[in-house]
Every structure is written in structure tokens, then in C-alpha cells.
Specification:
By secondary structure, the chain is α/β, with parallel strands linked by helices. It is built from nine helices and ten strands.
């Protein structure tokens, strides 16, 4: 029987406790699927080989772990592509090492995809550490939106809250209703039909970090529909680029420039 689902996680100097929670909750969510064959988990190490103390896969989870390393730090999207090239599963999950899955997340996600064959990818309801919804679906960004959201202090950012709410689709997305075709979805959790992902060639490897999910989202709309499915639930521990130091700011700006050059500049 063909493999139902595979998962790829790209790591670079990960927090072991957080990665352990990701693997534990992934295994729990996979168990709910009652898999007929093992699900493959690709762990892509963008650091030096042997530098990560990999957490164990929980017993009874039917997960086959495949570590890919030795290629150096090739970037987020390019790292996932190493797994996408190898998988033959019906579905492929692009997952961050700072995500915790609800036990029924994958069961509900695959049920939705089976019921809606026009759907090429789905994005879930995402909450933060405090339990609040993270609005990670986006409309097409303007340069000004990205600057305000990423770099202005909170006291000034409040003046543009209505504008940012529009960018983050807060007027269209809630915690109960399916929303069709959000322009952009977050790369922290993207569940694709594998054939759609392969037709797209995976991520564009020219993005080292940031905006590779924006790029992939927009290209997906050319061949399939995307759905926000709030019955699929995850917890996200992620943070903003501006709070991670100069290197991340530089990567963010470089990727933003590449993105706008490809899809069109929109300033205000």
C-alpha cells in the first residue's frame, strides 16, 4: 500500500525540548490516522553532521525517521526540497520545529483534502503560547505593511492597526469557518498534495530564509486551491525576524527584495 503522508522538518541549532514536543505531537497526530504503512519523517540538518542530539520517536508511532545532513546550511526552502524530491506519499507536510500539533490535526486535515479534491494545500488554525489566534494568512503585502509590522515599536505600530488587520485577513478569518484561497499562508505548517508540490518544484531555493512561503503560496494558486481549515489546530512558538538580530533583518530584507522583484512591487 502506498504511503499516505510524509513530513519534513528543517533544523539549524534547534532547541531540543521544543523539537521533542514537535516530534511527540506529530507522532500523536499520526497515530490517529491508523496508518497502514509507516509515515516517513525527513529531518534535514542544516548544521554540521552529528551536531544534533535527535529526540527519540515515541514508541508505537509508525514513523520512519530519515536524517538528511552533510549539505551545510542551504536555507529553509532548499532544505525542505531535499525531502520533497524523495517522497512518494500522497500528502506531504512542511513543518517547523517550533510547532505542536493537536492530536486530531492530521486526521481532520486529510479528511478535508479527501472531501475537496480541488484543494492543493491547507493551512490550520494557529495559536500562540498564550492561547491567542495567530493570523498568519496574509493578503499580498505592501512594503509599508512589512516595515510597520516588522520594525516599528508597538507604541507606534498601534496607529496602523486597522491597516495591519486588513493585511492579516482578520476581517475574513475566524476560528470556526473555512476560508478559501487566502493569498498567502505560513510555512510553519503547510499540508500539500504531493503531486501539487512536485508540479511546483517545491520551494524556490533562491530564498535562503523568509518569503519562500509567500512565493510558494502565490504559485500554488496557479494550479490548485488553498484552504484555511480551523478544525485543524496547532500551537506555534515562533517569533519575529526583527527581534532576532541584524543577520535575520538582513535576510528578511534580501528575501523581500527578491519577492517583490518577482511578483511586483506594491509600496503603499
Amino acid at each position: 500500500m502506498s504511503e499516505l503522508i510524509s513530513t519534513s522538518i528543517v533544523v539549524y541549532k534547534p532547541r531540543r525540548d521544543m523539537l521533542e514536543r514537535t516530534l511527540e505531537t506529530l507522532a500523536s497526530s499520526l497515530r490517529a490516522l491508523n496508518l497502514a504503512a509507516n509515515a516517513r519523517l525527513f529531518l534535514i540538518n542544516n548544521d554540521q553532521p552529528g551536531t544534533i542530539d535527535w529526540p527519540p520517536i515515541p514508541d508505537g508511532s509508525r514513523v520512519e525517521r530519515i536524517v538528511i545532513e552533510g549539505h551545510g546550511n542551504i536555507g529553509y526552502g532548499h532544505g525542505h526540497n531535499l525531502a520533497i524530491e524523495q517522497t512518494a506519499a500522497c500528502y506531504h507536510l512542511v513543518l517547523n520545529p517550533d510547532i505542536e500539533l493537536d492530536p486530531h490535526a492530521l486526521e481532520r486535515a486529510i479528511a478535508f483534502l479527501d472531501a475537496h479534491p480541488e484543494t492543493g494545500a491547507i493551512t490550520p488554525f494557529i495559536r500562540d503560547d498564550s492561547g491567542h489566534q495567530q493570523f498568519l494568512c496574509r493578503r499580498y503585502p505592501t512594503v509599508f505593511d512589512l516595515f510597520v509590522r516588522g520594525f516599528l515599536p508597538a507604541s507606534i505600530r498601534k496607529r496602523f492597526q486597522k491597516r495591519l488587520d486588513h493585511y492579516e485577513l482578520r476581517d475574513a478569518i475566524d476560528d470556526t469557518n473555512v476560508f478559501w484561497d487566502p493569498p498567502i499562508i505560513s510555512g510553519c505548517f503547510m499540508l500539500f498534495r504531493t503531486d501539487v508540490l512536485k508540479k511546483l518544484g517545491g520551494f524556490d531555493p533562491r530564498y535562503f530564509l523568509y518569503f519562500e512561503d509567500y512565493d510558494l503560496s502565490l504559485r500554488t494558486h496557479d494550479i490548485a486551491r488553498i484552504a484555511y481549515v480551523p478544525s485543524v489546530r496547532v500551537l506555534h512558538h515562533g517569533g519575529d525576524a526583527a527581534r532576532k538580530g541584524f543577520t535575520h533583518i538582513k535576510l528578511f530584507v534580501t528575501s523581500a527584495f527578491r519577492f517583490f522583484n518577482r511578483f511586483g512591487w506594491k509600496w503603499l
